[in-house]
Amino acid sequence: MSGATVVLMWEARAAEGRGGELLEWARARAAELSPAPARRELLRAPQDRVLVMTWWPDAAYGDDLPELPEPEAALITRPVHRWRFEAVD
Question: What average pLDDT score do residues 33-60 get?
């Protein structure tokens, strides 16, 4: 579908004791997205998990949209999880 708002979610779990570093890494990468999303949010959760959500209005679900990369392996405990959603009323 075209003309919808697509929301990308990126979630990673930091290596032991590196949650603050992962949060700052994600904040910097989110600020570098080009083009910039209409909206972005950074969230954190127990176990040093970091979530980044970006909103892309007037996008189709399958569009090639800028996403955060995978951090260096030493910063995370497992591969990044990624989800794509379409906003509904």
Answer: 97
